[in-house]
Write a structure and sequence with these properties.
The chain has 28 helices and two strands. The protein folds into two domains: 455 residues, no CATH class; 133 residues, Tetratricopeptide repeat domain (Serine Threonine Protein Phosphatase 5, Tetratricopeptide repeat). The protein is an all-alpha fold. Helix content is 69%, strand content 1%. The N terminus is likely disordered. Strands 1-2 form a two-stranded antiparallel sheet.
């Protein structure tokens, strides 16, 4: 073990007490890895359409590439730091907070082992990725920042890296708000001209803006050079304006304590407010106000600032209503497993079992919440109440321990940079009570906590041990493996992209199989294999024309699809969608290969109902199987449940009305169609069919409908 010298208190940064130490090449690499991570991660996306590249580099164009950057740069930084400390010795910086961080990581690991799905608890859910591995990554980033940002000038460099990243993120967000997006995207799942920048979703962007806004403001208030002060104010302008144009309420709520705290710190530090600051701050306020005023005439309530702000307090309608329903599901899940939870980031698997029936009607039968939109509840479902208490204990301990450091008037200019980080942490933690934690933003919380803790750190002098090369050698080997794995991770998502949008037929299946082979821990990749094979079956049936050889080939593909889907269900039995997919496949098999498959459809659909009681899609497949077996009453029972849960489920509404019509119960058919049409007018085919039936019932002649019916995958 390395020999140590006596620990010293570091109530101030080391630079304030001693001459700058000479850094080795390895330590410089570690430091630049941290700076690069802070700068690159927020702006990293895999969409390169501005270069003329049609397909992105990965299916997930936002989160997976950010995870890649974090982990690769974190591994490089940790390896370089380990080589430096083991070969040259030096100072190890620490605070008491690290003991609680280690305890928290141990708890998350135990929770992962006891999880309902350990792979998800370890790696995190696809497109969220906040499993055990990400929490370990946060701790590594925190540790490296604490070790390397050991004096005010380096804390400032850290803030500047985040600032320049924020400039790019903010500028791109403003371009989107002004209708000048330089990248090509598919159909957006939210309103046009709503800023989402490099985060893919306005709510996720809102989390990053808590850091970009307040770190920029802290730099501006700490800077004496007028040119740089203006540049920092410009960065603040863009980030604060995008808080408006993202139209995400969690960011608005989070920004309130951020502004309060940084104003208090500025007052305490007696920051000199120059004439130029009035110009800069006034310009920033005017820019935000311009976007606010511009939005007030927008007919869409989401894009209307006044209506959007008012909706914060409207708890019984819109997204706020479904948000409370998700919270209700989370609370009931926590009551079932309050200690260790279900495993980190497993909420998508948990939600179907606990969601209230009202959620189906309000959010639609296809909606599945993969996040609680409330971080304490999200964590409690995953790692239990003790895990939440430990993590928020870390946040509170950091806040209390660093308050005096930031509040102290000594070295006021440097304190305002720390104040920017402190306010950003407060804003982000507040935002998380109503928003989502994603790795592309949450790692900045840990960077910021380390930065504000740095002046309070204790230092321990260590000498290089005689066997010092062993530890960095092992760390290097693990880092090489980790980087290689992350490259494979990205290759798997590229293959998944090709299976989803790049190819068709057998080639699509081959890409899906490659994705599942490269990353067998991702259940969505596994499910895609079965779905691709199902489409192959449908293609063979549509083009074979009943030919015996074509039917034999289709049957072979069908059996491969069945085996793949059964394997996926065995791998992740809590994932409701897979039961829908397999029940649909069995209904297809019953129609074209063997009626006995209808019994299998019924069996697997009932298991799906056990997983999600209020799941209209699997009940629809159950009704199809019952109807095909001539059990019409049972089919009607399931379809009635479907349309009761979601009157906007068009396929179920149409199927139920057709059954009633065939049985001569026209009044019942009209009732079903009218209920659906009243609930959501404009559903495809519903209004037309309702008008035709009402006209027929009144004795008015109507033209017969004609249709062709190729084989399709039913929803």
């Amino acid at each position: 073990m390395a020999k140590r010298k006596k620990a010293q208190s570091a109530g101030r940064p080391a630079a304030a007490r001693s001459a700058p130490e000479q850094w080795s090449v390895a330590r410089h690499i570690a430091w630049w890895s941290v700076l690069a991570m802070v700068f690159i991660t927020p702006i990293a996306i895999s969409n390169l359409s501005f270069l003329g590249v049609q397909l992105p580099l990965s299916y997930d164009q936002f989160d997976i590439i950010k995870v890649f950057c974090q982990r690769v740069l974190g591994l490089i930084g940790l390896t370089a730091w380990t080589w430096d400390i083991m070969l040259h010795g030096g100072k190890i910086r620490r605070t008491p907070v690290e003991w609680l961080i280690l305890a928290f990581l141990a708890w998350v690991a135990i929770s992962a082992v006891l999880s309902i799905h350990p792979p998800t608890a370890f790696f995190g859910k696809y497109r969220r990725f906040e499993g055990l591995l990400s929490f370990v990554n946060y701790a590594v980033v925190y540790f490296l920042t604490l070790q390397l940002a050991d004096r005010p000038v380096r804390i400032k460099r850290l803030a500047q890296s985040l600032f320049w990243s924020g400039v790019i993120v903010g500028a791109y967000g403003l371009l989107q708000a002004l209708g000048g997006d330089i990248l090509q995207w598919g159909q957006l799942p939210f309103e046009a001209n709503r800023s989402f920048s490099t985060y893919g979703n306005p709510d996720l962007l809102g989390g990053f803006l808590m850091f970009g806004t307040f770190v920029s403001l802290g730099l501006a208030l700490a800077e004496s050079n007028l040119v740089w002060r203006g540049i920092y104010w410009f960065g603040f302008l863009m980030n604060s304006a995008v808080i408006v144009t993202a139209f995400t309420r969690s960011a608005w709520v989070g920004a309130i304590p951020g502004f309060i705290f940084i104003a208090l710190f500025a007052f305490r530090q007696k920051v000199e407010w120059k004439t130029e600051d009035w110009v800069f701050s006034g310009t920033a306020a005017a820019a935000s106000l311009t976007f606010i005023v511009r939005s007030l005439s927008h007919p869409n309530e989401v894009m209307n600032f006044a209506a959007r702000f008012r909706s914060i307090f409207e708890f019984d309608q819109g997204s706020a209503k479904t948000r409370f329903q998700i919270w209700d599901a989370a609370i009931r899940a926590i009551q079932d497993r309050p200690i260790f939870g279900f495993g980190a980031d497993t909420f998508r698997l948990v939600f179907p079992k606990y969601k209230p029936v009202e959620y189906v009607k309000d959010a639609g039968y296809l909606s599945v919440a993969d996040n609680v939109h409330n971080y304490p509840l999200q964590l409690a479902t995953g790692i239990g109440v003790p895990g939440v208490l430990m993590l928020y204990g870390i946040f509170a301990w950091v806040a209390v321990r660093t308050w005096k450091t930031v509040w102290d008037r000594d070295q006021g200019a440097n304190r305002m940079i720390l104040a920017g980080f402190w306010a950003a942490c407060a804003a982000y933690v507040t935002h998380l009570f109503f928003g989502l934690s994603v790795t592309g933003s949450s790692f900045l919380l840990w960077v910021s906590m380390a930065a504000i803790l740095s002046p309070t750190a204790l230092t321990v002098e260590v000498r290089p041990p005689s066997w010092g090369v062993v530890v960095p050698g092992v760390v290097t080997a693990l880092a090489v493996f980790g980087i290689w794995y992350m490259v494979v991770y990205m290759q798997a998502d590229r293959a998944y992209l090709m299976s989803r949008i790049g190819t068709q037929g057998a080639q699509r299946t081959a890409w899906a199989e490659r994705a599942a082979k490269l990353n067998p821990w991702n259940d969505m990749y596994r499910a895609e294999v079965g779905l691709a094979l199902t489409d192959e079956v449908i293609g063979a049936l549509n083009t074979g024309g009943g030919d015996a050889q074509a039917m034999t080939k289709a049957r072979e593909i069908f059996e491969r699809a069945e085996a793949s889907m059964l394997d996926t269900i065995e791998f992740v039995p809590w994932e409701y969608d897979n039961y829908v997919f397999l029940a649909n496949l069995y209904n297809l098999g019953g129609q074209f290969f063997d009626p006995a498959y209808y019994d299998k459809a019924i069996e697997i659909a009932k298991k799906g109902v056990e997983v999600e009681e209020f799941g209209p899609a699997v009940r629809f497949q159950l009704a199809r199987a019952y109807l095909s077996k001539g059990q019409t009453d049972l089919a009607i029972e399931q379809l009635e449940r479907c349309v009761e849960m979601d009157p906007a489920y068009t396929e179920a509404v149409t199927a139920l009305s057709q059954i009633y019509e065939m049985r001569g119960q026209v009044d019942e058919a009209i009732r079903v169609l009218k209920t659906a049409n009243d609930y959501r007018p404009g559903q495809s085919g519903v209004g037309e069919k309702l008008a035709a039936l009402e006209a027929s019932a009144a004795g008015i002649p109507t033209a017969p409908a004609t249709r062709s019916a190729p084989v399709t995958a039913a929803p």
